[in-house]
Automatic annotation (TrEMBL):
Gene3D superfamilies: Coagulation Factor XIII, subunit A, domain 1. This is Rho GDP-dissociation inhibitor. It holds the Pfam family Rho_GDI. Belongs to the Rho GDI family. Keywords: Cytoplasm.
Length: 200
């Protein structure tokens, strides 16, 4: 990826906010044990006093799926990408997903936190058409710990409205999606394509 493309993924900064140093699950578990509100926050992340931390092997986060959700989708139709299936990702670049023009939809991802706490994590996507950036979305995921039962988390992002008109319908749009934290650590990075149509 060129330096210019990397600039597209520069996260917005919050004035005065400085990310704290990463901590292990054990460090979080013992942190301010007498603080009741902090104990509730830690419990929401699956950090329980005395619980064994998962082994720190492999990626910290595995992004499993990306889905486009809309109340206008016909019954039974799903726009779902398995991000672990390289063949499906390659196929969607050749045969882009069709999004109905002028409708509200939102992006939904599912992901697993494999070990350690993640915080300041955001989903970003840059949409280009004919190599020119036409849209950028940046949404916070929040903070998560490994799910006690190893289950995946689901995050729905804010609704967007798809463009409409004959010009919008001509050609396809290339999307680069990324899950990244405040320290710049990239947890997932993938590409996909869509086109706009009169129907889903």
């Amino acid at each position: 990826m060129s330096g210019h493309e990397e600039d597209d993924f520069a996260p917005s900064a919050t004035p005065g906010y400085k990310p704290s140093a990463a901590k292990t699950v054990d460090e979080y578990a013992s942190l301010d044990a007498e603080d009741e509100s902090l104990a509730r926050w830690k419990a929401s992340l699956g950090i329980l006093p005395g619980a064994a931390a998962p082994a720190a092997a492999g990626p910290r986060v595995t992004v499993l799926t990306l889905e486009l959700v809309s109340p206008t989708l016909p019954a039974g139709k799903k726009l779902h990408l398995d991000l672990q299936d390289k063949n499906q990702l390659d196929a969607v670049k050749q045969n882009p997903i069709t999004i109905k023009e002028g409708v509200e939809y939102n992006v939904r991802i599912t992901f697993k936190v494999n070990h350690s706490i993640i915080s300041g994590v955001r989903y970003m996507q840059v949409v280009k058409r004919a190599g020119i950036k036409v849209d950028k979305m940046e949404q916070m995921l929040g903070s998560y710990g490994p799910h006690p039962k190893g289950e995946a988390y689901t995050k729905n992002f804010d609704p967007e409205e798809s463009p409409s008109g004959m010009l919008a319908r001509s050609g396809s749009y290339n999307v680069r999606s990324r899950v990244v934290d405040d320290d710049g650590e990239v947890y997932a990075d993938w590409e996909w394509c869509f086109k706009l149509g009169k129907e889903w």
